[in-house]
């Protein structure tokens, strides 16, 4: 990650965040149909994408903690918003999958 430009890091945050959000929405749709195994697999995929994004985010935090100035741009703010939105959707998806599963019992 050290060799990536700031633009590349921003894109990794956006791409992984978008992937996590999409997988979370797939999980909700699957749970609504009663396919809980598939829904849980999609949550797992969302978690993996968020972990990838978190690794890129952590590299920026470590750079700043080490005294290296990290440029904050509108694109970076957008990427962080995108990531936080993905995390929220994933958290809600987990709850909704559980809720739909409970309703089916």
UniProtKB/TrEMBL annotation:
GO terms for cellular component: cytoplasm. GO terms for biological process: phosphoenolpyruvate-dependent sugar phosphotransferase system. Its cofactor is Mg(2+). InterPro entries: PTS_IIA_lac/cel, PTS_IIA_lac/cel_sf. Binds 1 Mg(2+) ion per trimer. One of its GO terms (molecular function) is transferase activity. Its EC number is 2.7.1.-. It comes from the Bacteria. The modification Phosphohistidine is found at residue 78. The active site is at residue 78. Mg(2+) binds at residue 81. This is Lichenan-specific phosphotransferase enzyme IIA component LicA. It comes from Clostridium saccharoperbutylacetonicum N1-4(HMT).
């Amino acid at each position: 990650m050290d060799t990536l430009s700031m633009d590349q890091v921003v894109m990794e945050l956006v791409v992984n965040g978008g992937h996590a959000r999409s997988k979370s929405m797939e999980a909700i749709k699957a749970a609504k149909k009663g396919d809980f195994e598939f829904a849980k697999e999609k949550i797992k995929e969302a978690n993996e994408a968020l972990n990838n994004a978190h690794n890129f985010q952590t590299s920026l935090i470590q750079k700043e903690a080490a005294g290296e100035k990290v440029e904050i741009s509108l694109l970076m703010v957008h990427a962080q918003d995108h990531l936080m939105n993905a995390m929220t959707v994933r958290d809600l998806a987990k709850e909704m999958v559980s809720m739909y599963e409970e309703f089916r019992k």
